[in-house]
Specification:
112 residues; single chain; alpha+beta; Phosphorylase Kinase, domain 1
Amino acid sequence: MIGHTLAYYRIAAALGAGGMGEVYRATDTMLGRDVAIKVLPAELAQDPERRARFEREAKPLASLNHPNIAHVYGFETVTPAPLPPISRHPPPALTPAPAPASSSDGAVGTPH
């Protein structure tokens, strides 16, 4: 799906997948902005109950406005041309953060 276009969203990268869909980083080609889009896989899109649930999840989120909650800007049904299989790679390994540097006098700071 990477590199393909759904409606006016050009798919750039896979971000994750779960029981209700796949999430991709994409570019909104009409407005020139980066977005995340959630796609209901074709096998689930055939089930009317799954499509209804997908829409029920989107509607209340669209009414929320908070910096820690993703904004929903639209809900569209797109019938894409057949796509090649998606390669699922494991996420990159996380490297541990370096240990905090200690002060030269051995004092331990207290958070304020």
